[in-house]
Amino acid sequence: MSAKQFEQATLATKTAFLFPGQGSQKVGMLAELAEQFSSVQATFTEASEAVGFNLWHIAQSGEGLNQTEFTQPVLLTASIALWRVWLELGGVVPKYLAGHSLGEYSALVAAGALSLGDAVKLVNLRGKLMQDAVPQGQGAMSAILGLDDAKVLELCEQVNLQGRGSVEAANYNAKGQVVIAGDKTQVEAVMELAKENGGKAIALPVSVPSHCSLMKPAAQLFAEALEQTAIELPHIPVIQNVNAEVATDVAQLRQALTAQLYESVQWTKTMQLIQDQGVQFVAECGPGNVLANMAKRLPNIEKAFPLDSKTRLEDALNAILVAEGKIA
């Protein structure tokens, strides 16, 4: 589909596609769909040739799947494989695309802003730089539940004033759900304070404290790779993580992708923008259903669909085609 056809197709839809980030990976992802759709294997082969190692083997065996430098290209490729199957089956072109953290790269590939080959190389490098930025075991992330954003920021500031490291809000995921990141000791201190203030705190099983200032050294190196990568304006509007705005300028797009490494993911604002623009249906284009489940709680979203199995994909395809008036 050409850029003009994409742009025309999005005008008529009330659907947005969401692309998940790291943490959604699971061993055996897309195996069932690969048996039915040759484009799944073809997409993994294309991406593997670009990055220089077998992404399908990692996805199916689990070997290295939780190592950030491998996780990121595998997840991106899985999302694009699903996207291609969706279009192959005649699925509607969404009005908006958005990706959570790593998922922003999947959204940009789907929108024609980045080639799949360039994107998997970028996120492989991104994963390496992130892993190298903080020694193993020194960083941490935690989900803080049940407190408003201002209270979480207040607790982070309270701990930071002690001057033994830093902790920051990394992801504003939903009302009453903020992920924090930083030095492990500081993160643990905020977790204790959150519990004392009536909230819940869940340590996340990650090896890298993403979206905080500890990632600034990685971002400086990553910016150089971004400058050398061909990027176009997206053919479908892509909402960026750092400002919850639609990318309209390539230089701004590169800058936002660099800043995304050390600034917060504005997912709450992203989903509010999607609702404000009349979107009623969302589909999560990748393994799992975390983003779809969060979207289901929003007042203006009628239905949210995961796509990562044959049954789920068919259900979403039919339901959205009917809702959009494409079939009776």
Model description:
The structure is a single chain. The chain has 14 helices and ten strands. A five-stranded parallel beta sheet has the order 7-2-1-9-10, sandwiched between helices. Strands 6-3-5-4-8 form a five-stranded mixed beta sheet. With 328 residues, it is α/β, with parallel strands linked by helices. The protein folds into two domains: 3-133 and 214-323, Malonyl-Coenzyme A Acyl Carrier Protein, domain 2 (3-Layer(aba) Sandwich), CATH 3.40.366.10; 139-206, Alpha-Beta Plaits (2-Layer Sandwich), CATH 3.30.70.
List keywords for this structure.
Malonyl-Coenzyme A Acyl Carrier Protein, domain 2; five-stranded parallel beta sheet; alpha/beta; Alpha-Beta Plaits; 10 strands; 2 domains; 328 residues; five-stranded mixed beta sheet; globular; Acyl_Trfase/lysoPLipase
The total tally of domains equals 2
The assembly state of the depicted protein chains is single chain
Using the alpha-carbon principal axes, give the shape.
globular
Query: What name does CATH use for the topology of the largest domain?
Result: Malonyl-Coenzyme A Acyl Carrier Protein, domain 2
Q: Class of the largest domain in CATH? A: Alpha Beta
DSSP summary, beta strand count: 10
**How is the biggest beta sheet arranged?**
5 strands, parallel
> What portion of residues is helical?
40-55%
EC number: 2.3.1.39
Protein name: Malonyl CoA-acyl carrier protein transacylase
GO molecular function: [acyl-carrier-protein] S-malonyltransferase activity
Family: Belongs to the fabD family.
